[in-house]
Amino acid sequence: MNRNGIREMMGNHPVIKKWLDYLIMNQKLTRPRWYIRLLAPLYQERGKGAHIYRTVRMDTPPYRRFKIGRDSVIESYSCINNAVGDVIIGDESIIGLHNTIIGPVTVGNYVCLAQGILVSALNHNFENTDVRILSQGVTTSPIVIEDDVWIGGNAVITAGVHIGRHSVVAAGAVVTKDVPEYSLVAGVPAKVIRDLRNNAIH
């Protein structure tokens, strides 16, 4: 059964969904069970020359898509999680040390993520004050990082953000809104401070 078939079955049959989810995911640790992790190279899509360091935590159950393109690298101690949305990484991109990516996230080609970056398309629901936050479920909003983007160390990219091509996110920035292409953004929350095409300062 392919990935779409698993997703369709899980969506249409709540009892089967619960059973499959239990078999695939460790409910307490919220990560794929050891035998699923062993099988991961069989269902993950890895381009020629792509490299994922041994210490990377790959929380990639088979009912969502994980793809890493040609000659891309995920460096040590990073965490990739597609349990609630696909994670797609393009060609010749670098995911630096200690990065965390929680889908749905699309990273383009020639993207450089420095160290300690959080890219999370997931938020916990919290509106009902009579229910514990951990019992209210989650929502997701896709993140897109276009081609030729550089994101500095310890930046945070929040759910729903779209970063345009050839943009730079300064170290430590918290990006809560879309970033136009050819922009340099910095700050908390991040704001456009320069247009890279004409070096105009905002």
So how many helices? 3
Low-confidence stretches: none
Beta-strand share of residues? 25-35%
Order of helices and strands: HHEEHEEEEEEEEEEEEEEEEEEEEEEE
Please bin the fraction of helical residues: 10-25%
The rough form would be described as globular
C-alpha-based Rg, rounded: 18 Å
Profile the largest sheet.
9 strands, mixed
Mean pLDDT: 91
Total number of β-strand segments? 25
Structural class: alpha/beta
Question: Can you describe this structure in just a few lines?
Answer:
By secondary structure, the protein is an alpha/beta fold.
Secondary-structure map:
Elements: H1 3-12, H2 14-24, E1 25-26, E2 31-32, H3 34-43, E3 45-46, E4 51-52, E5 57-59, E6 66-68, E7 73-74, E8 79-81, E9 87-89, E10 94-95, E11 100-102, E12 105-107, E13 112-113, E14 118-120, E15 122-124, E16 138-140, E17 143-145, E18 150-151, E19 156-157, E20 162-163, E21 168-169, E22 174-175, E23 183-186, E24 191-195, E25 200-201
Parallel strand pairs: 3-6, 4-7, 5-8, 6-9, 7-10, 8-11, 9-12, 10-13, 11-14, 12-17, 13-18, 14-19, 17-20, 18-21, 19-22, 21-23
Antiparallel strand pairs: 1-2, 15-16, 23-24, 24-25
Helix pairs in contact: 1-2
